[in-house]
Amino acid sequence: MKKTALITGAAGGLGRALAGRLAADGWQLVVTSRDGERLRHAYGDQHLQIVADCSTAEGSRRILEIAKAEQVLPTALAHCVGNIRLGALHRISEADFMDCLNANLISAFHTLAAFISALREARLPGAAVLVSSAAARIGTPNHEAVAAAKAGLEGLVRGAAASYASAGIRVNAVAPGIMDTPAATGIIGSETARSAAARQYPLPGIGSPDELADLMAWLLAEQAARVTGQVWAMDAGFSTIRPLVK
User: Fold this and answer.
1) What is the value of pTM for the model shown?
2) pLDDT (tens digit, 9 = 90+) per residue, 28-48?
3) What is the DSSP string of 132-190?
4) How do residues 112-144 score in pLDDT, each as one tens digit?
5) How confident is the model over 47-69, as pLDDT tens digits?
């Protein structure tokens, strides 16, 4: 039986990179976004495309209901929805904070709940990988909102991994540093900003979504069958080692 994966946020840079990697590995894909036009631009007539807002319980359930109606049941989930809202605590607006929570934490909660519910109903094992951030692991100026959201996501991963391990459902996360994606354009849009961002990592440079997609694909694959409840950092040492000060 062909392996099937659900990718949320599939019109974004990371989602597209992961879709390409999984498709090359022979996976059948269900790709979702709130923006149908961006989905069609990214994938043409490939894959099962579902337009839905997974930041609500109803929207997340709708994704799995449509997939089931199409006789497709994903046993792997890659939740690539997210945004970056920067600003010191006393400056960030309530609207930006709530938008950050909805995109990075609330969507993960509802999507994972709908996915696991579908697996349990079908009595199938499965695997999920969510996307955290280096900012959840080490204090970073002006990252209070996204750090809070992603730290919540990491707690969600560990709790869900504990709850559903006996059902053969694995839940993990990846925690990258800044990546060269459209979502980061506001941070590394100029050469000066890009160079400054690259220098903050012990291994200097800007991460590639293709690199992270490789790790996510491995976590969804059978090779990672003994891995659950983990948050895998891919941040060039940012959250764990002190860079050399020159």
Assistant:
1) 0.92
2) 999 999 999 999 999 999 999
3) --GGGTS--TT-HHHHHHHHHHHHHHHHHHHHHGGGTEEEEEEEE--BSSGGGHHHH-S
4) 999 999 999 999 999 999 999 999 999 888 899
5) 999 999 999 999 999 999 999 99
Q: How far apart are CA 212 and CA 18, in angstroms?
A: 8
129 forms beta bridges with: 78, 172
Return d(Cα 192, Cα 66) in angstroms, integer: 45
The whole-angstrom separation of Cα 102 and Cα 105 is: 6
Architecture of domain 4-234: 3-Layer(aba) Sandwich (3.40)
Helix (H, G, I), strand (E, B) or coil at 6: strand
For residues 80 and 239, what is the distance between their CA atoms, to the nearest angstrom? Answer: 21
Q: What angle, 0 to 180 degrees and rounded to 10, lies between the N-to-C axes of helices 94-101 and 144-164?
A: 30
Find out whether 183 and 121 touch, Cβ atoms under 8 Å: no
